[in-house]
């Protein structure tokens, strides 16, 4: 394939309506602008840095444990359904966070946020790959 043909194919891919969604989501998915504010709120509630570290550890443990099961869920029930569940978990986590300052509520928030992260991670790339496979573009993936 010549460079000119390759340029035309990439131009066609970039002009597809779904590509802006992939790019938009890919850029914003890991930007967590809320984290500094939550940290300030927690500190204002007299939650120690050690306790905040425990909350982050709980979140990461739940993300790790549910990473594979959430991927299996996406494969059987669909990636859009998985993203919907992800955002439900995120929403519930913020409800728990702002029901604080009870530490138990913050723990439940960390659990739900970890589950949301598990359901979110990998879904974006899987949806891109599914689209590329459907459009017979897998030879152009990098």
UniProtKB/TrEMBL annotation:
Segments forming a coiled coil: none
SUPFAM superfamilies: MFS general substrate transporter (SSF103473)
Gene3D superfamilies linked to this entry: MFS general substrate transporter like domains
Keyword field: Membrane, Transmembrane, Transmembrane helix
Signal peptide from the UniProt entry: none
GO MF term (any one): transmembrane transporter activity
Chain ranges passing through the membrane: 37-62, 83-99
Name of this protein: Major facilitator superfamily (MFS) profile domain-containing protein
Lineage, uppermost ranks: unclassified sequences, metagenomes, ecological metagenomes
